[in-house]
Each structure stands twice: as C-alpha cells, then as structure tokens.
Amino acid sequence: MSKAIQEMFDRISGRYDMLDHVLSARRDLAWRRKAVDMLPKRRQKILDLCGGTGDFLNAAHDAGLATSLSRVADFSFGMMSSLPAKGLPSGIQADALNMPFKDASFDTVLCGFGMRNLDDLAMGVDEVARVLKPGGVFLTLEFFRPSTLAARAFYGLVAPVALPLVAKAFGSNRDAYEYLVRSTRGFVPVQAYVELLERKGFRDVRPRSFDLGICYAVVATK
Prior knowledge:
Number of strands: 7
Number of helices: 8
Structural class: alpha/beta
Largest sheet: 7 strands, mixed
CATH class: Alpha Beta
Order of helices and strands: HHHEHEEEHEHHHEE
Helix content: 40-55%
Strand content: 15-25%
Strand order of the largest sheet: 3-2-1-4-5-7-6
CATH superfamily: Vaccinia Virus protein VP39
Number of domains: 1
Distance between the termini: 24 Å
Radius of gyration: 16 Å
CATH architecture: 3-Layer(aba) Sandwich
Shape: globular
C-alpha cells in the first residue's frame, strides 16, 4: 500500500468505526457476521489482514471461531489503536504485500475492505497464500466494481454525493470517503477476483452477494 493511503487511514482512525456504521446504516456489522458464517465451524488461528479496528476478528470471536492466538494486522497503526478497548490483543503493523509472518502461520485469513487498497492485487493474494496453512481458508469481504443494477445505482448516483457529505457533517476527512467510491468503481468485478484466486491455486472459491450486490463475501480454500 502507498504511504498516502496509510496516512489517510491514520487521519480518519478516530472516527472510522462511527462513520462506518453510520454510512452503511450498520449493514457493515451484518455483512461481517454473515461472512463469518461461511467459515468452517471450528476454532481457528485467524489473521485479520487490513483489519483496522478489528470488527471482522470480533465477529469471528463472537461466533466462537477465533483462538487466543488470532491477530489483527494493518498498515495503519492509528486504525489499530482501539483494539485493546475491544478486548483484542494489540495489532501488528504490516504491509499486506510483505507480511512479517512465517509461511503457513494461520488457519484462516480474513480481509475486510482491504484488497482494493493494495498496489498489486495478485501479489497480495500470493502473500495470503504464503501465510495460510495447507487447507486454510481465505475470506474476503469487499466492495467490488459494481455489476448489478442496484450496485451501479448506489455507487454511481447515491454514494458519490451522500458519503462525502455525511463524513464532512461528522467532522471527518471528506477525501477519504470520496476515495472509497473511487476505489470501488476502479476495482475488479467479483468474478474477476474469483478467477484470480483460482489461478493462484485456491479451490472451492465461492462468492456470496449481500444487499443486491453492494457488497460481496468470497471464501476460498488453499
């Protein structure tokens, strides 16, 4: 990830959770819960990659799936500052393209709304595969390039106006939420992401649409 993206997330870290919930009408919490339901029903050593404030790992903990060895890693140290208050261990500052973990370190890697921020998507997928154990699971929750009518309407008409205005009203960085819309519209479609995972050796790749294609979860096995 670029230094500019890191600094942007550091700037909005204090208001990130509140704005995330407000801007999505709390649907982000439901998306994480539904995505976690796609994981194997066993306790797992989980890496929450690009995990920010830890809501994805928290959802796994609430489902009884995460062991005490599970961790959040994020490029932005500021985003992880609230982890202890949520009962999570301190986060690990890490570049998703060059993680400080040994090969085959984790049973599961989660990545919520982080893959579209990577400078090199294919390299990011390779790095996830490296830190996963054989048979491990990679679960992505993401805003992919809109492909359904509802998603195109949301990202083409509603989001470019509403998200920056709400962010500004709450005293947050308007540019960050304009970036959210730009990065989503410029990201790969979900089917292209599925095909990339398959080319990289993942199997049983299954996408699941939430809220008429506004958000997708994609689960894959190494």
